[in-house]
TrEMBL record, chain A:
Signal sequence region: 1-21
Lineage: superkingdom: Bacteria
Protein's name according to its UniProt entry: PilJ/NarX-like methyl-accepting chemotaxis transducer
Keyword list, A-Z: Signal
TrEMBL record, chain B:
Protein name: Uncharacterized protein
Organism: Hymenobacter fodinae
Domain of life: Bacteria
């Protein structure tokens, strides 16, 4: 009879229990890791870019201002870094809580399995009861463990959610400002390089315009020569006059349209040959300057490309912050939903019913 | 923003006058704290540098310095805004850190709890095994107390 009494607590474990489970914390943990990594990278970029501006040749007052801003940004970046660490710690702890649930269940299961194996030595009738009890140990202990885990998670995610949403909003605003700092710092670098190489850049632009004119002029001169050496060309004189007019509009040294008449044609061709040499020389100038111009452009392109890539990274970071905040809300909703599905009342009623039932057995036996 | 008639700027003095207008606009933009106005001021100064003749080099350098001044103001403003949000961010983080601390101790308890349950279950079951072997038939009033305790445990669990 005593055996029945001693087994009662275990028999209670066999009660049919309503199922509840611990929601998966990992999507939130993953979102946290991705977000904090991207934001850390963004912080590094912004501080590096601002630091690069102070390496440039600047007016002393501007250099002083940028150095002070660099110092301030470093302090703010360190503070934000601490916040990211706190968020990592929070997410890590939620994983620990969820993990404690499965670890706890593992140890319960191991103990229950050990118990079931011992029972086989005691004969078939007793063994069956012990095996059932062992299963009960697993079921109720796991259930209780899950309830406790849900309770711990609820205590964490429910009050934290409002803070998490607010932190997400602030982080997004901060990183929009950090993106602005980054792109503005890149702009300063670009302006300085442009200013330092102004002569090369503007000379090249001028020479390029000249080259376009040179190309046009040489094309006219070639057309003039071709027409001049083909007496059979219809309306040849008019055509030559027209070409001279067009050339005159570009080059004042070109003779007047009247120089297209046959008597003056040889002299005109000789003069145009000299103008052609002049314009070809101009085209050569731009080619000589091109390597220096391209080197400056490459420097500027590096700054612009880097700035554009970082702009994408900052935009991606903002998106990750949103994903992270949403993941937390989803987790909170899931935890609350699972917590609500737990019905202690059912368990209590069943336990009391069982107690009455066992009392009756006790009475009958006695 | 001033309207500059770029095509009619011929003499260096005319370019200098145009720059004076743009510098005044840049100064207004810095004071205004308006991001669009600042951007427009910088765009105009950049256009000036691009369009000005080669011999206007010193003027271009002044224009470049003005762009940097506007940029410094933009950075200052961004740093100020980040600084303004610092206190609230700290407050929220303290709350999250508090929750983290509490959850961390809960995780430890849960781990210990699981282990304790496993040990208790095994002990109870082993006592049961012993009882089966002894097979004593004497009534035990502790049984009722034990059931009461389980019900109380369940009740306390509900309150968590």
């Amino acid at each position: 009879m005593r055996s029945i009494r001693l087994f009662l607590p275990l028999l209670l474990l066999l009660l049919p229990l309503k199922g509840c489970k611990v929601p998966d914390v990992n999507p939130f943990a993953k979102a946290t890791t991705e977000m904090t990594s991207a934001l850390t990278l963004g912080l590094d970029h912004a501080t590096t870019q601002l630091g690069l501006t102070t390496k440039q040749k600047l007016a002393p007052a501007q250099l002083q201002q940028l150095q002070a801003q660099q110092k301030k940004l470093r302090q703010q970046a360190a503070a934000i870094q601490e916040i990211l660490k706190a968020l990592d710690a929070y997410s890590g702890t939620l994983v620990e809580v969820a993990d404690a649930n499965s670890k706890g269940k593992e140890s319960i299961n191991e103990a229950a399995d050990a118990l079931a194996s011992i029972s086989t030595a005691l004969g078939p009738s007793v063994s069956l009861g012990i095996k059932g009890a062992a299963e009960g140990v697993k079921a109720i202990s796991g259930y209780v463990q899950t309830i406790r885990t849900l309770s711990s998670l609820k205590k964490a995610v429910q009050p934290a959610d409002a803070a998490i949403q607010r932190v997400a909003t602030i982080l997004q605003a901060n990183f929009a400002d950090l993106a602005r700092i980054d792109s503005t710092a890149a702009d300063i670098q670009e302006v300085i390089i442009t200013d330092q190489n102004q002569l090369i850049l503007q000379s090249y632009d001028d020479l390029q315009q000249r080259q376009t004119l040179a190309d046009t002029m040489t094309a006219y001169i070639v057309a003039f020569e071709n027409t001049a050496y083909k007496p059979s060309t219809p309306r040849r004189t008019q055509r030559l006059e027209q070409l001279l007019k067009s050339m005159k509009a570009i080059d004042k040294a070109v003779p007047a349209a009247t120089s297209a008449n046959p008597a003056q044609l040889s002299a005109t061709l000789a003069l145009l040959s000299k103008r052609e040499a002049f314009w070809l020389q101009r085209a050569t100038d731009v080619n000589r300057l091109r390597p220096r111009y391209e080197a400056v452009q490459a420097q500027l392109a590096t700054i612009r490309t880097g700035s554009s890539q970082r702009r994408s990274l900052f935009a991606q970071s903002t998106h990750l912050v949103q994903v992270w905040a949403r993941a937390h809300t989803s987790l909170k909703t899931a935890v609350l939903k699972e917590s609500r599905s737990v019905s202690f009342q059912e368990v209590l009623v069943a336990a009391q019913e069982l107690r009455s039932f066992i009392d009756k057995i006790e009475t009958n036996k006695q | 923003m001033p309207k500059i008639d770029w095509d009619n700027l011929l003499l260096l003095s005319e370019w200098a006058d145009a720059l004076m207008q743009l510098l005044a606009a840049a100064e207004d933009a810095i004071k205004s704290k308006n991001a669009t106005q600042r951007q427009q001021a910088n765009d105009m100064l950049k256009l000036y540098i691009k369009k000005s003749p080669i011999d206007a080099g010193p003027l271009d350098t002044i224009a470049a310095a003005a762009i940097i001044d506007v940029d410094i103001a933009v950075i200052e403003e961004a740093l100020f805004r980040i600084g303004q949000r610092k206190d609230e961010l700290q407050k929220q983080i303290q709350l999250i850190q508090g929750v983290t601390k509490q959850a961390s101790s809960s995780a430890k308890e849960l781990r210990l709890d699981g282990l304790k349950k496993a040990v208790d279950s095994t002990k109870t079951a082993l006592e049961g095994l012993k009882a089966v072997n002894d097979d004593l038939s004497k009534s035990d009033s502790k049984l009722t107390k034990k059931l009461d305790k389980i019900v109380a445990d369940l009740n306390s669990l509900e309150e968590e």
